[in-house]
Amino acid sequence: MTVLPADAPKPYPHKYVKLLSNDGHEFVLQADVVFQSGTIKEILTGENGTYSDKVYFRGVEHDTLSVVSKYLMYKFYCKGQSFYDNIPQNPYKAREFKIAVKYLKIY
């Protein structure tokens, strides 16, 4: 049996996380996949020791969040391969995707 120090962070209790867009679409992903994003990880593991299983993105439309979700899954399962073929071709949507990836700290 492993004993953790008292100040050690508790493991995340949920297996799946819901990402919710501003227009009501839900994207359900495994917690390990979502935790590639430093920003989402900080949001889900609250400062007071509480854990959430939902993240609301009020400024992100479903089509942008869809591509971000696909990117997270791709990055998790296909390490070392290029994702650039799947980035939206519409310059406005591609810009939104790049802003979202930067904000979410997905490197």
3D structure, described in words:
With 107 residues, the chain is of the alpha+beta class. The protein has one domain: 2-Layer Sandwich (Potassium Channel Kv1.1, Chain A). It contains four helices and three strands; from the N terminus they run E-E-H-H-E-H-H. The protein has helices spanning 31-34, 38-44, 62-77, 91-103, and strands at 16-20, 26-30, 54-56. A three-stranded mixed beta sheet has the order 2-1-3. Strand 1 (16-20) and strand 2 (26-30) form a beta hairpin. Helix 3 (62-77) crosses helix 4. The longest helix has 16 residues, at 62-77. The N and C termini lie far apart (35 Å).
Low-confidence stretches: 1-5
At the fourth level of CATH, the homologous superfamily is Potassium Channel Kv1.1, Chain A
The count of β-strands is 3
Number of domains: 1
The separation of the N and C termini measures 35 Å
Biggest β-sheet description = 3 strands, mixed
* Helical coverage, percent range: 25-40%
Strand order of the largest sheet: 2-1-3
CATH class type: Alpha Beta
Strand content: 5-15%
Based on secondary structure, the structural category is alpha+beta
CATH topology: Potassium Channel Kv1.1, Chain A
Topology, please?
Elements: E1 16-20, E2 26-30, H1 31-34, H2 38-44, E3 54-56, H3 62-77, H4 91-103
Helix pairs in contact: 3-4
